[in-house]
Design a protein that fits this description.
Blueprint (H helix, E strand, L loop, with lengths): L5 H11 L6 E5 L5 H12 L2 E6 L16 H11 L10 E6 L11 H7 L3 E7 L10
Parallel strand pairs: 1-4, 2-3, 3-4
């Protein structure tokens, strides 16, 4: 059972804005951020790329070749060949970004590219904004 939250309406408004930028969602631990984001993604996208930096250490090297979209998406598929990127139909969810805050540096590249929507989430206790470039 899914419990509706205030963020649900915000995410719908975000997607409806033709000029929306990648999103960083921060909040206390265990309040349903990931559940809400995944629920939204399943309702609105044909393809979901979900990466949890706390649970899937194989993705810690996705920035090894740079912060551009092509390098990041290539390195994600090298880490997990089952992942597909479908332009204009995929959303990329970077969860637990406090474990890999440099991933926020890619957001400008994803915005300029415009082929994928991106949402990052992390707990307020762990996100260290000084480490985000």
């Amino acid at each position: 059972m899914y419990f509706k939250r205030k963020i649900d309406d915000f995410l719908q408004e975000w997607k409806a804005d033709a000029k929306h930028k990648p999103l960083i969602i921060k909040g206390a631990r265990q309040i349903g951020k990931t559940e809400s984001i995944l629920h939204f993604a399943k309702q609105n996208y044909k393809n979901i790329v979900y990466i949890n930096f706390a649970l899937e250490k194989k993705f810690m090297q996705i920035l090894a070749d740079g912060y551009d979209v092509e390098s990041v998406t290539r390195n994600i598929t090298l880490a997990d060949p089952s992942i597909q990127f479908i332009p204009k139909e995929s959303i990329i969810l970077f969860d637990e970004i406090q474990e890999h805050p440099d991933v926020a540096t890619t957001l400008k590249s994803f915005h300029r590219d415009g082929n994928y929507d991106v949402i990052c989430s992390g707990s307020m206790l762990g996100i260290n904004y000084k480490r985000i470039h």
